[in-house]
Amino acid sequence: MTSSLPPRAGRRCHHTLNPLHSTLYFSPDLDREFTALGLADAAAVRIAARSAPLGAVGPGTVAAAFYNYDHALLARHLPAVWETVSPAAALGARLRAADATLRRLLGEEAVASPEMAEAAALALRAVEACSRPARPLYSANADLPVPEEPHLAYWHAAALLREHRGDGHLAALLTLGLDPLEALITHTATGKGMNSAWILETRGWSRDDWEAGRERLRGRGLLDAGGELTEEGARLREELEEVTDRLDAAPYEHLGAAGVERLTELGRGFLVTAAGAGAFPPHLMGKN
């Protein structure tokens, strides 16, 4: 299929939308909302907040949908978490937290701005071309109502676009033969992913698991002795992103070149403001 967009335009747009959506998962507002419901464990909060659209599912379903979490971590919290917080209550808590987070990070003027309303309309327009088949997290989120307030509609649309790309990315990982840990390790090795300390803390893997994954990648010629990507490893990561781009092209093609450019511009502005307000923990990214 011939694209009407500049190369990687959809990917660049995603890289402005996804991080702002993800501020929720680093937000004290999320912890506060779930603590009020009786759930204080940080890992349980984040697992419940993201998986709630799927319903009261167990660890197997979430391991499949999230891909890079250790099943043992998920099994410590699921399905037990739903005895404390129902999926409906979790959805309400995460939307309230998203509201508080965006207001705190962006400020009331930006939240109520014409630019926010424009960004929400553009992102929702892109979502019109997303597809449900083989995309469980996208499809579950697509069943949720669109919030009325523009900043929450923007956050909701960003969630849909994030999960649509993410579901396709998992198909690409399977096609190219990277298991959950190998996917995380190679992403970290690019310098564009979370560092290993954050991954081990949040995804449930042990340091021994991590080192075993690195050894598998060395055996495949994808990682060198120092833990850096080899030329073959770098090519594989780029192929992975290109396959993901193809699987995620529809919403951005639907929006059109001018719309994608404008959505990227608006999203970048919001993201810069949020990052400047301390949206992300220090030392989150890196190769270590």
UniProtKB/TrEMBL annotation:
Database matches in Pfam families: HTH_67 (PF21863)
Highest rank taxon of the organism: Bacteria
Q: What is this protein called?
A: SalK
**Organism in which the protein naturally occurs:** Streptomyces termitum
